[in-house]
Amino acid sequence: MKLLRALALLLVAAGLSGCGYNAIQRQDEAVKAAWSEVVNQYQRRADLVPNLVNTVKGYAQHEEKVLTEVTNARARVGSMQLTTDDLNNPQKLQQFQQAQGELSSALSRLMVVKENYPQLKADGLFQNLQAQLEGTENRITVARNRYVQSVQQYNSMIRTFPNNLTAKMFGYQVKPNFTVENEKAISTAPTVDFGNTPAPAASAH
């Protein structure tokens, strides 16, 4: 009896392996790991925001609108937590993208503010925070790209035969991904108007 049971388990294991079960499991774990890195980098950026806001406020207190936008955007990001269990929910992923995109735009406007304040641009703390922000943005881009690739590989795997049968049997679903529209919105630099009127050109004599 024990021998028959062991043989049955071996046959089941071999069948699952042949149908791609193990490969689907590995790819699903790869997606989760890639997402964790995305979240880590976004959190790194969020952690920089309070110091950035306080530093800018020290030189540009009347830029209240921009400072408020950054603070509010960070608060929305903090309330929009997306776990690996939520990755199959396209609505939640879209909401997460939108919140991160709003913070990206707000931070871009904050960085433009410095152009009107030479002392702020020269401040050592601000320069250090700016360098950290730029490095973090690069890490976010890398992490997002890796996540996109992981999801594409996972989705392709569970859509192909016979993996699609195994995926359906065990409830694996196609995962939503970052959208092209969101990528375009995040990468578009915001237009900022400080209301400065250029001086009239001197007339030739």
Question: What topology emerges from the helices and strands here?
Answer:
Elements: H1 2-18, H2 21-59, H3 64-79, H4 90-113, H5 118-122, H6 124-159, H7 163-170, H8 180-187
Main location: membrane
Protein name: LemA family protein
Pfam families: LemA
Q: Say what oligomer this is.
A: single chain
Q: Output the CATH topology.
A: de novo design (two linked rop proteins)
* Total individual domains: 1
Compute the number of helices.
8
Name of the top-level CATH class: Mainly Alpha
CA-to-CA gap between the ends? 110 Å
Cα-atom Rg, whole angstroms? 24 Å
Report the major sheet: none
User: Which residues form runs of ≥5 with pLDDT under 50?
Assistant: 3-17, 184-205
Membrane topology: Single-pass membrane protein
Main location: membrane
Family: Belongs to the LemA family.
GO cellular component, one term: membrane
Describe this structure in words.
The protein is mainly α and 205 residues long. The chain has one domain: de novo design (two linked rop proteins), CATH 1.20.1440. It is built from eight helices and no strands. Helix 2 packs antiparallel against helix 3, helix 2 runs antiparallel to helix 6 and helix 3 runs antiparallel to helix 4. The radius of gyration is 24 Å and the shape is elongated. Its main location: membrane. Keywords: Membrane, Signal, Transmembrane, Transmembrane helix. It is found in: Membrane.
